[in-house]
Every structure is written in structure tokens, then in C-alpha cells.
Amino acid sequence: MKTINKLVLALFFFGTLLVKADNEIPPAPGGGGTGGVGPGGVASPIDMYVYLLSIVAVVFIIYFAKNLKSQKA
After folding, report:
1. Is the CB of residue 53 less than 8 Å from the CB of residue 45?
2. pLDDT, position 22
3. Which of 12, 23, 28, 43 has the fewest CB atoms inside 10 Å of its own CB, making it the most exposed?
4. Rounded to an integer, what distance in angstroms lies between the CA atom of residue 30 and that of residue 3?
5. CB half-sphere exposure, 67, CA atoms < 13 A
6. What span, in angstroms and rounded, lies between the C-alpha atoms of 32 and 40?
7. Mind listing the pLDDT tens digit for each residue in 14-41?
8. More confident site: 25 or 11
9. Alpha-carbon gap, residue 20 to 73, rounded angstroms
């Protein structure tokens, strides 16, 4: 049980760092021109794959949960 608590704490910590990193994007340079995405916004390439990444995450969770259940039985 202690291992699970450490894993959850580590995931929470890294998730917090990722959220905090999003707030520290420097402003886009230029004289009011439009950038790659919207009015001068900085594009993140991961934005295009959010739905695919969430589906893959759910599949991995199901796969490893079934493997864990079969090992305990």
C-alpha cells in the first residue's frame, strides 16, 4: 500500500509541475500579427492528440488492471 501512495504522490507532483509549466509561456513576439494558432498564441503540438492520448491511457489502464487481477487469482 505504501508503494501506491508514493506513486500517487509522484504523479500528483509531476502533474502539478506540468500545469505550472503551462502558465510560464513567454508572450509571443511581434506587432500584433497572428501566430500559428490564434492571435499570437504559442502552439503546443500535443493539443492535436489529446483525444487519442486519453483513449490510449484508458486502454492501458484496462490492460494493466486485468493483468493485475489475473496475477492475484
Report:
1. no
2. 52
3. 23
4. 49
5. 6
6. 7
7. 877 766 655 556 666 665 555 455 555 5
8. 11
9. 41
Q: What is the pLDDT of residues 51-68, one digit of tens each?
A: 888 899 999 999 998 888
Question: What average pLDDT does the segment 1-11 reach?
Answer: 83
DSSP class of 41: B
Identity of the residue numbered 44 = S
Collapsing DSSP to helix, strand or coil, 37 comes out as: strand
The residue count of the chain comes to 73
Cα 35 → chain centroid: 24
- For residue 12, count CB atoms less than 10 angstroms from its CB and return exposed for 0-12, middle for 13-18, buried for 19 or more: exposed
